[in-house]
Amino acid sequence: MAGGDGQVPPPSSPSLEKQFEEFRVQLEGSASLRERIRAVVMEIESATRLIQANLLLVHQSRPVPEVVEKAKERIGVLKELYGKLSEILHDCHGQYYRYHGDWRSETQTVVSQLGFMHWLETGTLLSHAGAEEKLGLNSSEFGLDTEDYLIGVCFMSNDMPRYVVNRATAGDYDCPRKVLNFLTDLHAAFRMLNLRNDFLRKKFDSMKYDLKRVEEVYYDVKIRGLVAPGGSQG
C-alpha cells in the first residue's frame, strides 16, 4: 500500500528477496527441463504414430509376421528416446514423479503397442519386466511406472475385439477362442488388484466390454459350426 506521499514502500527485506530469487531460479530451471522433456516426448509421439499406422494393417488381413516386423523397426527408436529422457532426469535425483506426467500418456500408448505386438507373436502377455527391457529402462533409476504398464495393457485389450472380428471374417475361426481365453485370464488377473487409481479402474472396466464383445463373436462362430475340432473354449 502506498504511503501518504503516494510513494511505493521500500523493497522487501534482503532475506525475502533472496528467497524469491531462489524461487525464480528454480522455476526457470524447471521450465527449461520441461521444455527438454517435451521435445523428446514429441519424438515419442511421432514414433508411436508410425507404429500405429503399421499395426492397423493387421486389421486388413495382412500377414501378421510382416506387420509385426515392420512395427518392431521403431522399437529401437523408442529405446533411444527413453534413454534421452533418462539422461535428462539423471541430475534430478528423486524428481521422477514430479515430471512423470509429461510422458505418462505417451508411455501408456507405447506399452499398449508393445503388448499387442508381443501378443501377436506369442499369444501371451508382455510382462512389466519385458516392457522395461524393450525400452531399455531400469527400475532402480528410470523405470516403467506400474500403473502406466497396467493402463497400457488395458488399452491393448481395446484392440482385441476389432482384431477378432476381422480375423473371423477372413476365415480364421480359431482366433476368437484364442483371444477369448487370453482376455478371460487377463481379466481374472486384474481382479486380483485393489485398484485405487480411478482412471485405471475405468480402463479395467472397459476390458469387461472387450471380453463380452469377443465372447459374442466366439459364440456366433461356434453356433454356426465353424469352430475347428478340439477348438472349444479352454
The 3D shape can be described as elongated
Strand content: under 5%
Structure classification: mainly alpha
Task: Specify Rg, calculated over alpha carbons.
Answer: 24 Å
Largest sheet: none
Spell the H/E element sequence.
HHHHHHHHHH
pLDDT < 50 runs, ≥5 residues: none
What is the count of helical runs?
10
Strand segment tally = 0
Mean pLDDT: 87
**Span between termini:** 78 Å
Oligomer: single chain
Query: What's the helical proportion of residues?
Result: 55-70%
What does this structure look like?
With 234 residues, the protein is mostly helical. Helices cover 69% and strands 0% of the residues. The protein has ten helices and no strands. It has helices spanning 14-55, 64-72, 75-89, 96-99, 104-122, 128-135, 146-158, 160-169, 175-190, 198-223. Helix 1 packs parallel to helix 5 (104-122).
Keyphrases for this structure?
234 residues; mainly alpha; 10 helices
Per-chain topology:
Layout: H1 14-55, H2 64-72, H3 75-89, H4 96-99, H5 104-122, H6 128-135, H7 146-158, H8 160-169, H9 175-190, H10 198-223
Helix pairs in contact: 1-2, 1-3, 1-5, 2-5, 5-7, 7-10, 8-10, 9-10
Summarize the structure.
With 234 residues, the protein is mainly α. Helices cover 69% and strands 0% of the residues. It has helices at 14-55, 64-72, 75-89, 96-99, 104-122, 128-135, 146-158, 160-169, 175-190, 198-223.
